[in-house]
Amino acid sequence: MIQVILPGHLRALAHVIGGEVELHVEGQATQRSVLDALEAQYPMLRGTIRDHITQQRRPFLRFFACEEDLSHEPPDAPLPEAVASGAEPLVILGAIAGG
User: Which CATH architecture has domain 2-94?
Assistant: First the structure.
């Protein structure tokens, strides 16, 4: 099982209690496969993390795992083994902007 930590606004939208969701991902754990599983389990999140058409990450969301920013990694690149094994979560973080 892969653990994903969602930002507060997405937890509220998905009616998730607590900070983490657990997902079963078929095949290799990649950003795409994890987001596919997340959207399948929580269909109300479709289009909130990535664009409906392009499947690109939304600009004000970032992906972190194992103390690394994975936001600019290719969507089909394998996630770190610690994430794939469930030892570490994939963190989806809402970026803060303003001035």
Answer: Roll (3.10)
